[in-house]
Amino acid sequence: xxxxxxxxxxxxxxxxxxxxxxxxxxxxxxxxxxxxxxxxxxxxxxxxxxxxxxxxxxxxxxxxxxxxxxxxxxxxxxxxxxxxxxxxxxxxxxxxxxxxxxxxxxxxxxxxxxxxxxxxxxxxxxxxxxxxxxxxxxxxxxxxxxxxxxxxxxxxxxxxxxxxxxxxxxxxxxxxxxxxxxxxxxxxxxxxxxxxxxxxxxxxxxxxxxxxxxxxxxxxxxxxxxxxxxxxxxxxxxxxxxxxxxxxxxxxxxxxxxxxxxxxxxxxxxxxxxxxxxxxxxxxxxxxxxxxxxxxxxxxxxxxxxxxxxxxxxxxxxxxxxxxxxxxxxxxxxxxxxxxxxxxxxxxxxxxxxxxxxxxxxxxxxxxxxxxxxxxxxxxxxxxxxxxxxxxxxxxxxxxxxxxxxxxxxxxxxxxxxxxxxxxxxxxxxxxxxxxxxxxxxxxxxxxxxxxxxxxxxxxxxxxxxxxxxxxxxxxxxxxxxxxxxxxxxxxxxxxxxxxxxxxxxxxxxxxxxxxxxxxxxxxxxxxxxxxxxxxxxxxxxxxxxxxxxxxxxxxxxxxxxxxxxxxxxxxxxxxxxxxxxxxxxxxxxxxxxxxxxxxxxxxxxxxxxxxxxxxxxxxxxxxxxxxxxxxxxxxxxxxxxxxxxxxxxxxxxxxxxxxxxxxxxxxxxxxxxxxxxxxxxxxxxxxxxxxxxxxxxxxxxxxxxxxxxxxxxxxxxxxxxxxxxxxxxxxxxxxxxxxxxxxxxxxxxxxxxxxxxxxxxxxxxxxxxxxxxxxxxxxxxxxxxxxxxxxxxxxxx
Length: 798
What we know:
Blueprint: H1 19-41, H2 68-85, E1 88-93, H3 99-109, H4 111-115, H5 123-132, H6 160-168, E2 174-181, H7 188-193, E3 207-214, H8 230-239, E4 242-248, H9 252-279, E5 288-294, E6 304-305, E7 308-309, H10 328-339, H11 343-346, H12 355-358, E8 402-403, H13 405-419, E9 426-430, E10 448-449, E11 461-462, E12 467-469, H14 473-485, E13 489-495, H15 503-517, E14 528-533, H16 551-556, E15 563-566, H17 571-583, E16 588-592, E17 598-599, H18 604-613, E18 615-617, E19 631-636, H19 638-654, E20 660-665, H20 683-690, E21 696-700, H21 704-711, E22 720-723, H22 734-740, H23 745-755, H24 759-762, H25 764-784, H26 789-792
Parallel strand pairs: 1-2, 2-3, 3-5, 4-5, 9-12, 9-13, 10-11, 13-14, 14-16, 15-16, 19-20, 19-21, 21-22
Antiparallel strand pairs: 6-7, 8-17, 18-20
Helix pairs in contact: 1-2, 1-3, 1-5, 1-9, 2-3, 2-9, 6-14, 13-17, 17-18, 19-23, 23-25
């Protein structure tokens, strides 16, 4: 085990603020509140150097005020402890539309102006900061990639705490604070994320400090946790393994003092827990602190508008004063509200923050907006991936030997895990399926992360492990995203049917990557890699509920510069694809591969070449004679490839005069036109591979309509006939799954006969033989419970 990191004693001292420090903290908080409100409303006159007029107001008022004062309070007090204790820190801003606050604070500390020099820390830059917020050509209303210091997209709720724990893993000197909105706390992913503290290693990981911000309301309803009696809420949080520290009130001076004390108490407890684990060898799981912060929604904003209460109610959620350009009373209230922060005390005549405002701000990369942990590409190192020759299976002839592809990959992953044991920057995550997916070789290099209780019957549990299993796809995804975004590498292994649980999460990550690519200051991060196995064609034992190949369709709808989908047909092509994916940057790579024994088709060198092409002719499988073939048999996926080659075998036997081309597709995006995806083929390439006039019988792993959608612009699309999964599933035999979905070898031969001109008459007897084989299959499996011997014992060279 690598040596435990050493604690810096500077982090172990209490630093209660003086009255003077509290005064400057309040100045910083008021400045942030002023800038946050200004972003929602102001188009001009940022310092209120003249009376507010309608033309100073944005024509469309967008943004969310309700959560902003609480977030500003957290940012201000984080600044204080970071500076006083010289901490490396990162904050995850969970409340969905907290953008005004984080933008305001990053501008105050200077990190925003460093990334965007036009938004200088003066009146001109302040006006730009306010104008661009939720404005065409500007920045979003939530915490997005454009915001320095962010790794968490605020546009969707539920994932903040999972991201925070992912960021803390293997970052022993990092404090990750996570602000959780009480609306967000009602989501399923967030509720599951409270269990992440049972996986946090106090020796090798950093600390996560959750701050549950209870301001009472969502858009139009009270929030559940804010209405629980304090005793009940405490019982809930203690049951999750946390010790709550409460801060509550609406008087700023009182809340500032209480918040400072709470932060000091929490950090002292964290420091002591880490010291005990790292220096004394204590193995008992700590009960980590959580701060429960109760402040009014829309705090310091308008108390009442048009006779209705606003501050402390759901009406403060978005824009408290909505008719400012047309309603003189609203305009007067807005000006009174903004001037209540006394901007003249906070900014000098040129609009620069005064010394009191900046007194709490840390220096350099300790500023929350400048931390390299929020720009993980600055920290990422290449993985030490060994030569594939060390793991490849020998293939003297195609289709004569069989291996479990994911088991072969598991050996490679075990080596990567072993070779990163010192640097600890690679993790494997999955929902309780590592061994089920045949990747258990990794346990020889690292156990499964576990900080809770253990029993003698448990296997491979390890307090310091880097294999992470929890029966929550949401949490696996969130952990890995946080890990990648802070500069590390990983792989998410999942049953194909249940990866859909994170459909929405991968949407957000793809959007994050797409936006980040357009920001020159965001460095590329390691790709998010999925291994989808236990797939649709070999879920015959679990049945219909476990049969769904649609994640590929979902991903290929997304930004083409980001998404990649691979369907390796055997063990060596899986190795080649995985090698490429683990080395790549700024992609979402989806790899679909089986865990059951399947035929080995290509040597490792052939696999490298084939994967580099993405799609190619397997000359040894076809019967072309140098002229244009009569028919093209295409395939993508391991089981479709086997059925296609079995069909080619039958055609050799029964129709030897037929010229057959076999095309295998590994990289699904190759089917797209060149202008639609970076991996797309030119029309010249596509026409050369599939022809423009000959029938193409395409056996595909997933829903057949996807292939039609990818290829609909091609010249020969009218000749394309796709077989795939069409929601005909049950608990049955492996071959019956393909028969039920008309993807079997006999049906493929029948398709050839039906579509090659002239065969319908002269090959009638062959077609009848194929139909009879399907009939025999149905009778056989019902009597014997197994597949036909001619299917179960088939091999390419039989």
